[in-house]
Amino acid sequence: MVLMAFTRLQLKRRSKKKKFRFFFLFFFLILLFLFFYFFSRLDSLKVKNIFIEGNTTISKKELNSFLKNNINKNFLFFFSKNNIFFLSEKQLAQAVANAFPEIYHARLKIKQRDIYLDVEERKAHSLWCKDADYSNIYNELCYFADQRGYIYARAPYFSDGVFQKIYLPADSIMIGKKVMDENDFQNFFHFIDALKKKTGMQIAKIFMNEPYDIKIFMTSFLGKTFKSPYPWFLFKKGDSYDLLLKEMDILLKQDLFIKNFREKGDELKFIDFRIPHQLRFKFYLTDEQKNSA
Fold first, then answer.
1. Which domains are delineated in the chain?
2. Where would I find the H helices in the chain?
3. pTM higher than 0.90 for the full model?
4. pLDDT tens column, 192-234
């Protein structure tokens, strides 16, 4: 009997200890919650000023408003993010870059109670347009791409020659996406630059909307200036740019092409390099040839 009474007493003590621990832990968690709740909302730890540098096309007002909206939110439902101890420089900078495709890189520092944001905006390299039947040329849907091929903003209408215009199928251009792999993008434009240097070619538009072909409409070539409809230079997607440049060298030394170009260069219709080792070209008939025919 004594042993049973002692065992019951032990069980009661253990139960009281468990209850005490439970209430102590509960009370401690409540105190901890209240501490962080009020700590997160201390005015002395809130962001006081936001300083922004490097922006050109995006207004400081937009960036300032975005940052304020971001830091004035709660995390874990109850705790304020607007506290210099809770804010992450890296996460805030990434949030800014994600929200504004025009921004290539964002650097953010928090010093005392101030935020310093320095942004590097993307630079317009070329225009990429949706190939479609437009009722008016001013309705063209074109977008800026930076030097890495990243589409970042809708572009207003530009006449030919201000930016290089490349046309793609309408569903293949989206803001926030690349038009092609960065290396492919840079190699393509290196080729275009080399082509211009070699031939004096000036380009009105480039079409990549065909499954296998790239068509370049030329406004000038070998010193000749053309009127619309412009002649075009045609080659296959995936062809070696080095080989294309070598074939252009061969064409420029070909007697038949040089003779025709000297006599009726204004009537050039196309140059076609799609078939390997076959340099095809065609000239329109001159008025004299049409009359004699």
1. 43-121 (3.10.20.310), 126-292 (3.40.50.11690)
2. 2-40, 60-71, 89-99, 182-199, 241-252, 255-264, 287-292
3. no
4. 999 999 999 999 999 997 778 999 999 999 999 999 899 999 9
